[in-house]
Specification:
This protein is of the alpha+beta class. The protein has one domain: Aspartate Aminotransferase, domain 1 (Alpha-Beta Complex), CATH 3.90.1150. It contains 4 helices and 6 strands; from the N terminus they run H-H-E-E-E-E-H-E-E-H. A 6-stranded antiparallel sheet has the order 1-2-3-4-6-5. Helix 2 runs parallel beside helix 4.
Length: 140
């Protein structure tokens, strides 16, 4: 196992550990997202750990050319708020289609931020994952 693979494994475990105070639907959502990614050969998960112990999961599409990869989605657990922060390029109308909203516009590349809490995930996990899958496949 390469050093990078070991580091990613450690960071993925930290990501899941931070979900310790999450509800059932949040944990179920992240497991289904991981499974969705694992079904695709062109999509990978990459974890980034920050000094404040925040661990961010990035959903990447890999390309076989000089581009390498493109981040489609970043997500991290907000411990105090007990919700996910998700950043993507999904538009307000796309987010609204699954009862999400555009909560914030940031200066980052994936500028559109939405918050996913237990209430939203209980009602719409399946629809949110379908939207993410279409988004990654560039069908939107």
């Amino acid at each position: 196992m390469s050093k990078n693979t070991k580091e990613q494994l450690v960071k993925s475990k930290l990501f899941l550990k931070r979900l310790g105070n999450s509800g059932t639907y949040s944990y179920e959502f992240i497991n289904k997202l991981i499974n969705l990614v694992n079904l695709r050969e062109d999509i990978t998960l990459h974890y980034i750990k920050y000094k404040n112990n925040r661990v961010e999961m990035r959903v990447r599409k890999n390309f076989n050319n000089h581009l390498g990869f493109k981040n489609y989605l970043t997500i991290y657990w907000q411990v105090r708020e007990k919700r996910f922060s998700m950043q993507s390029l999904l538009t307000d109308s796309e987010l609204v289609s699954v009862d999400l909203k555009l909560d914030n516009v940031t200066e980052y590349t994936l500028k559109n931020q939405s918050f996913l809490d237990e209430r939203i995930l209980k009602k719409n996990t399946k629809q949110i994952l379908e939207l993410i899958n279409k988004y990654i496949q560039n069908e939107i």
